[in-house]
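Q: What would this chain look like folded?
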Amino acid sequence: MIRKILKWTGIIILLLIAVISITVALRQNLTYDAPYPDIKASTDSTVIARGKEIVFGAAHCGDCHSTQNVDSILSLGQQVSLSGGHKFDLPFAEIYTRNITPDKETGIGSLTDGEIARLLRYGVKANGTAVIDFMPFHNVTDEDMTAIISYLRSQKPVVNKVPDHTYTVMGKVLKAFLIKPVGPDGEPARSLVRDTSAAYGKYLAYSVAECNGCHTVRDMTGGFIGEPFAGGVVFEEEGKPTLTTPNLTTDSSSRIFGWKEEDFLKRFRMGKLIPHSHMPWNAYKRMSENDLKAIYNFLQTVKPAKAGAIKKPS
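A: My prediction, written as structure tokens:
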């Protein structure tokens, strides 16, 4: 009797594994619908210059989409190649950044402006599949989106075939059931006044510079589960000291508690001090003084939370 029970238990388990495996395999390339934003790249030099400022400043695109020494190249007045290829070793996958130069075969040259804007705003590729939500541009204004795409179009095309992402078994399960497109929080603004207000600072911190992306604890799928800007995200690399993102809230445990505006600006102008820091200091140091002041003013409004705090269930 016991042998019979074990036999049927084994059969049922094998059937469940087979069903789950087939289901996961069938859901690897789900497609989604999303609108195409009415964005058209411009050849206006002012628009392109604004796009370059965003790309190599607040948005720090060069930190992920280039394998060059971005800071050194820009300081020499030369063009950085955003040809991708940087690898992220994650617990569930090996992710390679894409080539975002205008090359038609290996870059974005074959994509329309609307397809690029849809990917950035809604997380949906040209083929309808979802991207992992690593980039913060869902709520970027139409004006800034236009500037970004205009600059990307103005680059020299670079041929660089980037490897495909590879997923572990757990990664394939996450991709099948949890990785879905993430869109904007309502209708993105057409443009915003660039001033030093906390409101504009919030826009920069959430939608362009993605400060919350590293200073707020996430789950394995990238969803935010921590108190906003409370830090506590752990970065571990073999052979390097472990780094933990600091608390930026108004709590007394915050790294910037008691900092004056000039302290905040001075630290950013120093650039990267810890060589293996994941903070894109050298991109942020290129931000305008008013943009940094706006972020500082916004952080003064963030509710206090202890370092690394997780949100309580509602």
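The mean pLDDT is 93.
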